[in-house]
Amino acid sequence: MSKYSLLLATATGLKLSLISTLVMAENGAELSELVISASGYEQEVTEAPASITVIDQETINQGAYKDITEVLSHVPGVFATGGASGNDISIRGMPTKYTLLLVDGRPQSSRESQPSGGGGMDQEWLPPLKSIERIEIIRGPMSTLYGANAMGGVVNIITRKATDEWHGNVRFDVTQPEDDIYGGSKQASIYLAGPLIADTLSLRLGARGLFNEEDEVSRGASEKEIHNYNAQLRYTPNDDHAFDLDLMKSNQKRITTVGKSAAGSARNDSETQNDKNSFALTHTGSWGDISDTSYVQRESTYNEGRDMRITNLVVDSRWVIPSEEHITTVGGNITQADLKDEENVLDTNTISNDQYSLYGEDEWFFAEDLSLTSGMRIDKNENFDSQISPRFYANWFATETWTVKAGIATGYQTPELREMTSGWVQDSRGGDIYGNPVLKPETSLSKEIGVIYSAGNKVISATVFDNHFDDKIMTTSCPTSICSVFGSRYNVNVDEAKTQGVELSSEFQLRDTLNLSVRYTYTKSEQLSGDNKGQPLTQMPLHLFATSLNWQLLDKVKAWVDYEYRGEESQETGLSSNTETQAPSYDLVHLGMQFEVNDRFVVQAGINNLTNEEFEFSEYGFVDAGREYWASLEYSF
């Protein structure tokens, strides 16, 4: 079967199941994972019109990850930023708020419930790791399909679906730093799924609890307690249609104590409580060759300490229409956001915003070894003019083993509700911040070219990217003609910036029992205008190198070693406005081992930061524990 025929056959048989599957390649010797995030329908990774990486369930289960951020550290071009109390996700040097998080294709966002943007919050609302089937990461703008907030890239979490038999899993994790001034953590999760009515109605349940002890070091990890509960009820009246009802309830509590993790200047202890509830109803269907995925989702996040609530309502419908030489995706989206903040300085305490979108993409297989994807999205926001976001992507299947990819895409980010609302004043220690109704969306233009070599037991890829960022929103001094209080600030569109880089990755099956993966990322960013002209856009290393070696020692025993090098960072840490302190380079080594006691019990143990690298705030801009030991016990039934 030709590559061209295989692509069309895959599209014609679409069910949009969102379930990870494997397909045998033409020579019968290779297996390729299917992905859905890059185009809205299932296709092989090498054929997707985007730079995309898949993290499978085996990788997710290997190790003592506290949240999704730690799992994503294995992906080239993806950086975990932050510190002990919470990490955030940056893709290709873009600020973290430009990374869109999805669960089964539905957007997840609670940042506006936090005055400072809520770094590290969204990741901890996500489903427990045991409920995840795979994670798809797209590097680069995807605003054409996913709209605002996808300017840096997309992380799509595909959850597990119930099967025709009841099954489940219980897992316990414990992590303990060697130095007792740092707090340890304990985590438990449960997953249960199965049929209620054979072939018609199924149920999936998941829960997670995490407790992190407070560090006894200034600016260290606060005491943290997280609870997450989720459920999915799936109704399949026939083979062509499925209806999913998803419910999620989660809460996070953090305590910072003076004399422990509070900053040295803090005078009082602090406690924060955040709660999130979400509801989603999704239909996936097949109407002959035509397929659709449609959903309505409502999520509400409440910041108890600030008496602040953000409620997002999203309605989206996407249709995939294959024909002889084309696969066309069309859809529409309605997004409504409501923010209530009782601590607004002025009388106004409620903001709402509506946005309406139409989008479409067409993948044209105009030759047996060439495909061209072109797409466009039109967004109409009630607060500013229509935004048009096109993208173009080409795949050349040069040989059975070589694929060349190249694309150009636009992205955009709408201002936050507080930033663009007239009469809104946010209380801030550095001076009140006024809303600006004439703000424009931030925009980007991204170009990339890459090559993939895939043959037998090895895969090698290389990608070069260039991203230009316009109309960046920044906070600056506010003239008294606009702001009534001297010393106030407001938001304006002023800055331009660029990010450029190289992403390399490879994976080799050295022996039947030995697997090696190597990753390297070079990222450089620069602000081209504004007060910080000449400075990098974000705080991250120029060079990042990582390698992992997995060894199947015995049938039931495997071990792994991970090595990571982070070069000197290209951005000042912001410790003082008069300093340009850069976080120095460092190396990390992690060891782990897994033992399958029997078909039901699995025990894991390991050491993180084997060389006991220490991270002090004065040097790195964050605090983190040195060497730590972890263990997990897992029971499946």
TrEMBL record:
Family affiliation: Belongs to the TonB-dependent receptor family.
Keyword check for Transport: yes
InterPro entries: Beta-barrel_TonB, Beta-barrel_TonB_sf, Plug_dom, Plug_dom_sf, TonB-dep_rcpt-like
Name this polypeptide is given: Outer membrane receptor for ferrienterochelin and colicins
Superkingdom assignment: Bacteria
Region (Disordered), start-end ranges: 106-125, 259-280
GO terms for MF: siderophore uptake transmembrane transporter activity
One Pfam family linked to the record: Plug
Key words of the record: Cell outer membrane, Ion transport, Membrane, Receptor, Signal, TonB box, Transmembrane, Transmembrane beta strand, Transport
Subcellular location: Cell outer membrane
The species this protein was found in: Marinomonas aquiplantarum
Main location class: membrane
